[in-house]
Amino acid sequence: MPHRDRYPAGVPCWVDTSQPDPAAAAAFYGDLFDWKLEDQMPPDADGRYFQATIDGGRVAAVGSAMGDGPVTWMTYIAVDSADDAVERVRAHGGTVLTEPFDIFTAGRMAIFADPEGAVFSVWQAGDHTGSEVVNAPGSWNFSDLNTGDMEGAKRFYGAVFGWEFDPVDFGGGPMAMVRVPGYGDYLESIDPGVRKRHAEGGAPPGFTDSVGWFNPVSDNAPAHWSVTFAIADADASAARVKELGGQVLSEPQDVPWSRVTKIRDPQGATLTLSQFVPPEQ
After folding, report:
1. Residue 1 included in any domain
2. In sequence order, which residues have a C-beta less than 8 Å from that of residue 81 and are 6 or more positions away?
3. Closest to 130 measured CA to CA, from 119, 117, 143, 118
């Protein structure tokens, strides 16, 4: 699978997790996903930031938690200008949690909450363009918004990022497939034939432009962004999570095109692990 060398504006481009004990979290994920991790921070820095790679390509990162907030995974969405994104977020009812700031020469970021309170970041790339390895076992697969106001979420994110949406129902209730028009052109440029393979595999129309999913949640559940990582064997990964001190919140189960399990790492961050299962299997 080709390495990603850039991300068009509006495409989720990076994920990381902030943990009270980042070294322990790096050991957990390194063992689970077979990551090689290297701390990117100077020795005298207050925090740590372990960047993970697979076959030399960036995958994700594990950093130090700042403050007493929940332990989560953060999704970053590529933008041409983090400062311009601030204005769009405010104009459409979102909240700026952290104003734009530079991270050395890596890039410029800001942190927001959407009108329902779901937290996400934007990333204006410098030297660091985002995840280079995606969708391969051990790497990031998708980020999803879990929302109690599907139409409101569509209006907000459509205005901020230019996203378009298609209704999809795989049997578990109505969802929305998120598309960035033209994203498939980039994928085709680095992976010729990807559109044809998607169509032959039974993917819904427009899937090659897809960048995520909106899922409904009950009125009592808070809106939030969640992440899914690809794995080779869902059952083996679930067993390994338990051995490493994590929790399996939902045992592996079959869904269209995947076998998935939801887990919680030892410090509390949740994520979904997904084994790709072609329809013919």
Report:
1. no
2. 124
3. 143
Domain total of the chain = 1
CATH number of the domain enclosing 37:
3.10.180.10
CA distance 105 to 109: 12
Sign of the four-CA dihedral 25, 104, 7, 97:
positive
Residue 267 pLDDT: 97
Instruction: Tell me the average confidence (pLDDT) per consecutive run of 10 residues in the chain, 281 residues long.
Output: 87 98 98 97 93 97 89 98 98 98 96 98 97 97 96 98 90 83 93 90 86 88 96 98 98 92 98 89 47
- Would you state the structure tokens that stand for residue 230, as one six-digit string? 């690809």
Q: What was the pLDDT predicted at 281?
A: 47
Residue 193 lies in a domain: yes
- Please tell me what DSSP assigns to residue 280: T
CA 261, CA 271: separation in Å to the nearest integer?
9
